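Risk register update: the risk of archive-format incompatibility is retired. Evidence:
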Amino acid sequence: MRANAVIWWVICAFFVLMSVVYTVWSVLPHPDLPWNHGVEWVGTIALLFVGFMAALIAFYLGRVRRAQGGELPEDIVTADVDDGDPEVGEFSPWSWWPLVLAFAAGIFILGLAVGSWMTPIGLAVFFVAIVGWVYEYYRGYFAR
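Archived output:
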């Protein structure tokens, strides 16, 4: 986590430096104009804001690292792969319901883009896919 924060601080410094270089570069070709009329403000402000956003991410990562009270397994050189591999949950690699759900989302988005008559069809297929995926393991004494 510390390496991520350092990388984002480096990105922040780079974009702030590039903002200064961009500003000077846009002023130099126009020596007859006052400096504030020679600046190309959109690029300058955009580069400053990218640097500011990188600083926000770096600050957040630094605070998260400090709040965890230790290093993550992926930050420790001697850690094994299994140290950072917690049990996430159950996943069915043979399940077809995610494909049906993606198809439903595609129909819904296509309905928004092409014709509104396809949107309810996409919602109906979406409902069927969600119910099918949720009840995929609903077997046993109470199976319907």
